[in-house]
């Protein structure tokens, strides 16, 4: 299976981070950043703009690259169904264009996506927000603490 590139939008506004909401097989909610897989012929910014239109129905201004993480499925807790997955995720700081009044489920939501939600940064560690390891990195970044851009194989 080939290595897959994925880009994610880190959108923080009024001390809240924008997420897409999905449901697991037990009907329990969990949260992810908007974004997704790069298609052949797209650059990262084109991919991220498309994914944000599809998942949150919004245009975004794409800023700096914040973090890069690898996910090698066989090394993590979901190895039973992710064993052959090798994905590299690039997280960019983004801002909603026109304040984001238009956000909602977009034209082509993620499989299993049931909505979008702004999670308060002050209680981010309490949510099933994946990848869970990165929750603290986001909190640190928005509190002025800097980490290396490349985070390695983390989940």
From TrEMBL:
Alphabetical list of Gene3D superfamilies matching this protein: Nucleoside Triphosphate Pyrophosphohydrolase
PROSITE patterns: NUDIX
Molecular function via GO: hydrolase activity
Ranges of residues in domain Nudix hydrolase: 2-143
Record bears the keyword Cytoplasm: no
Pfam families, alphabetized: NUDIX (PF00293)
Keywords for the protein's UniProt record, in alphabetical order: Hydrolase
Names of the cofactor(s): Mg(2+)
UniProt xrefs under PANTHER family: GDP-MANNOSE MANNOSYL HYDROLASE (PTHR43046), MUTT_NUDIX FAMILY PROTEIN (PTHR43046:SF14)
Name by which UniProt lists this protein: NUDIX domain-containing protein
Native organism: Anaerobacillus alkaliphilus
Highest classification ranks of the organism: Bacteria, Bacillati, Bacillota, Bacilli, Bacillales
